C-alpha cells in the first residue's frame, strides 16, 4: 500500500490506480470543539473531488491537515503516498495549494510573485521564466504580468493563485474556496480553467466550496461535509438520484390567462394544498417562480393543480442532480441521525457513464477501507445537470 | 574530435532534477526576497537618512575642534576612534568652552537609534504576511517553517548592517581625507568589533519586534508594544535603576567604603538587566582604549587594576576582556529574544 515517494503523473505512465490523497479517520479538535470528525475519503489522479459544505464545516482544517500545516488530533493522511506530518516538505513539493482568499505581495508584479514561488520550489531560473510566461498565458494574465498585484481584481488574483499553485508542476492541486466572492462571470471562467487544467494535466484536484451549485458541474465526485463530518459521498448524480427517490423539487412558473405572469403568492396559494406537496417556497434564483418539494413524480400533479386554478404553467422543471436541492435534506438527515448518516445507494441497474468503480455502492462516511475494484474514469464522468435521472428505477 | 560536445550535454542530462534537490537553505531564498523588499522600501530610505544625519552631526562636531582636542589627548593614543565617540560637550570640556551645539557623539546617537532601527525592520515581519494572506501560500511551499522566520530575521539584520556599515565607512573615509586622521590596524579592529556588537544589539530589538509581530495580529499594535518597550528601557530604565539603588543601598552623607561598594554593585547588577545600559558600557570600552574610571563598573575597575595601572591604555584584547560580560549579555539577550519569537511562530496555527 505504500507508494513510491514521488508518484508523479508523467507521460501517461500508469500510476493512476492508487489514490494520491487518502484521509483515514482524520480528526482535529480545538479544545472541546471538534473541527473535523473521523473523516475518510480518497482522491485519485485525474479526478476532481469536491469537498462541499457550509462555512465552518472544517474544510480548510482538512486541507491544512493534508498539507501538514496542522497536526491531526488522530487519524492519518497520505498525500502522494507520504504522511504529511512526517515529511511535509515532500508533500508540499508535489501539492499545489491555493488557500481561500489567496494573497500576494502587493508591491511585486504578478511575474515577481510567481518568480518567488519558483525560487522557493527550487525551479531553476532558466525553466522558471518560460514556465511563468506559459502559466500566465493559460490563466489569461500574461498581458498584466508586469503590473503590481495591488491593481488586480479578485478574479485576477484567484487566477494568479491557480498559476501559483501550478508553478511547481504538482501532481495534486488543492483549491480552498476557489470561487468564493467572485462575480458570476469570474466563477465560470475560473471553473472552466480548473476543469481544463485537470483534464490536460491529469492531476488530482481537491476543491472545497460552500457554493454547491457552482462547483458541482466540474466535480467528478463530491463529499458533503457538515459540522466536521462527511455525511455523504459519491457523484453528484448518485446523490441526486438517491434524494429524488424520496422527494422531488420542482421549479414552477405560471401565467394567468391574460398572459401576465402570475405572482409568487398566487402560485404558492394554489399549490400549497395540492396532493403530495410537502412545501412551497419562493425560488431564490428566479423572481417569478416557486420551488415545490413533494413526492416523486409530483410535476404532473402540479400541472393539473395549476390548470384547475386557471393558471397556465410556463415553467415546470424537476430539479435533479443539483446539490443545492439535495443538500439541505442531507444536512437535515445528518442532524436528525448523527450516528447513521444517510447513504445514497448506487443503483445497481445502472451501467455506463455513472458506474465508476471507485465507490462501489458505498458513498458516505466509511470506516473500512474501500474496495479497489477499478480505476476512475473521469473522462466519462457525466454530471450534466440537464440529464435527468427520470429513467432510473426507483 | 568532438569529444567535448557530448560532455556538457551529457552532464546536463545526468544532473538530478533540480526540483528534487534536498531543500536546504530555504531561509536564504526568503532572506533574499525580504532584503530586496527592505532595500527598496521607504522605511529603509528614511532610516538611512536618519543614520546619515547622525553621521553628519558627528562629523560636524569633530570637524569643529578636533585639533584642539587632539592637543589634549595623551601621546600614543590614536585619534581615529574620536571620530565616533567625540561629542560636542566633550570638545567643549577639552577646550574649556561652553558647547553651543549639544550634539551627542555618533555612538551615543546609534545607541539611541538602535531600537528604532530594529523595530522598523521587524514590527510587521510576520503579521504583514498574515494581513496580506500570503502566509498560508508561503508555508505551502517546500520550505521548513522556521526558514520563514530565520530568513526574515537575517534579512532585517542585513538591511541594518548595510545601512550602518555604509555610514561608518563614510565617516571614516571623511576623517581620513579631510582631517588626515589615519586609523591604525587596531583602530580598524576596534571599529569592526563595535560594528558587530552594535549589529547584535540592534538584533535584540529586531528580535523583540519580530516577537511582537508574531504575537500581535495587527502591525500597528505590534509597533506600539515594541516602541513602549524601547521607552521603558531607554527613558525610564535609568530612572528606575537609580530609584531602586537609592532605596536598597542608600549612600549616607559621608559614605563608608562598604556602602559605596554595595551601592556600586547593585547599580552594576541592575544596569546589566537593561540592554541599553549594557550596550553603552560595551561601546565605550570597545571604542575608547583610554580607560576612564567613570565608565567602568566596580568589577571592571578591579580587572583594570589587575591588568595595569588605571588610566593606562588597553589593547583591544584587554578591552574585550573587560567588556566580555557585557558583550555576552547582549548576545544572550538577542538569542533569547529571537528564540521566543521562533518558538511562538513555530507553535502558531497557520490560520489566523
* Poorly predicted regions of chain B: 1-20
List low-confidence stretches of chain A.
1-16, 338-394
**Distance from first to last alpha carbon of chain A:** 38 Å
The proportion of strand residues of chain B reads: under 5%
CATH topology of the domain at 21-104 and 152-235 in chain A: Rossmann fold
Overall 3D geometry of chain A?
globular
* pLDDT averaged residue by residue of chain A: 77
| Shape descriptor of chain B | globular
Radius of gyration of chain A: 23 Å
Would you count the extended β strands of chain B for me? 0
Looking across the biggest beta sheet of chain A, what order are the strands in?
Answer: 5-6-7-3-8-9
For the biggest sheet of chain A, the summary is: 6 strands, mixed
N-end to C-end Cα span of chain B: 64 Å
Alpha plus pi helix count of chain A: 11
User: What is the mean pLDDT of chain B?
Assistant: 78
- Specify the helix fraction band of chain B: over 70%
Query: What's the number of domains of chain B?
Result: 1
Q: H/E order of the elements of chain A?
A: EEEHEHEHHHEHEHEEHEHEEHEH
Question: How is this structure best described in words?
Answer:
The complex is a heterodimer of chains A (394) and B (352). With 394 residues, chain A is of the alpha/beta class. Among the domains of chain A are: 21-104 and 152-235, 3-Layer(aba) Sandwich (Rossmann fold); 244-319, Alpha-Beta Plaits (2-Layer Sandwich), CATH 3.30.70.100. Helix content of chain A is 30%, strand content 22%. Chain A contains eleven helices and 13 strands. Chain A has helices at residues 59-66, 88-94, 110-120, 125-138, 154-166, 184-201, 212-215, 236-246, 264-272, 298-308, 323-336, and strands spanning 21-30, 33-43, 48-52, 74-79, 95-98, 172-176, 204-209, 221-226, 229-234, 248-256, 277-282, 290-294, 311-319. In chain A, strands 5-6-7-3-8-9 form a six-stranded mixed beta sheet, sandwiched between helices. A four-stranded antiparallel beta sheet of chain A has the order 11-12-10-13. In chain A, helix 3 crosses helix 4, helix 4 packs across helix 5 (154-166) and helix 5 runs parallel beside helix 6 (184-201). The radius of gyration of chain A is 23 Å and the shape is globular. Residues 1-16 and 338-394 of chain A have low confidence and may be disordered. By secondary structure, chain B is mainly alpha-helical. Chain B has one domain. In chain B, 74% of the residues lie in helices and 0% in strands. Chain B is built from 15 helices and no strands. The longest helix of chain B is centred in the middle third of the chain and has 35 residues, at 145-179. Chain B is globular. The N and C termini of chain B lie far apart (64 Å). Mean pLDDT of chain B is 78; it is low at 1-20. Chains A and B meet through helix 1, helix 2, strand 5 and helix 3 of A and helix 2 and helix 8 of B.
